[in-house]
Amino acid sequence: MRPRQIALHAALAVGGLVMLFPFVWMLLTSFKGVRQMLNDPLAWLPDPWRWANYPDALGAMPFGLAYWNSFYIAAINVTLTLLTSAMAAYAFARIRFRGSEVLFVVFLATQMVPSQVTVVPLYLMLAELGWIDSHLSLIVPTVANPFAVFLLRQFIRAVPVELEEAARIDGAGRWRCFWNVVLPNIRPGLGALGIIAFLASWNSFFFPLIFLNSPELATVPLLLSQFSGQRMAVDYGLILAASAIAVVPTLIAFLFGQRRIINSMAASGLGGR
Amino acid sequence: MALDTGARTGPRTGSARPGARAGRVRHRDGWWAAFFLAPQVSALVVFLVGPLCFAVVLAFMHWDGLGQKEWAGLANFAAVLTDPQFGRAVWNTVKLAVLTVPAGLGLALLIAVALNNVRGSGFYRVLYFLPVVTSSVAVALMWQIILAGDEFGVLNTSLEQWFGITAPDWLGDPDWVIVAIAAVTIWSSLGLNVVIFLAGLQTIPPQIVEAARMDGAGPVRIFRSVTLPLLSPTIFFSTVVAVISSFQAFDQIYVLVNPQDNDGARTIVYQVYELGFRDFQFGLSSAAALILLVLTLLVTLVQFAAQKRLVHYDS
Question: From CA A116, how far away is CA B88, in angstroms rounded?
Answer without folding.
Answer: 18
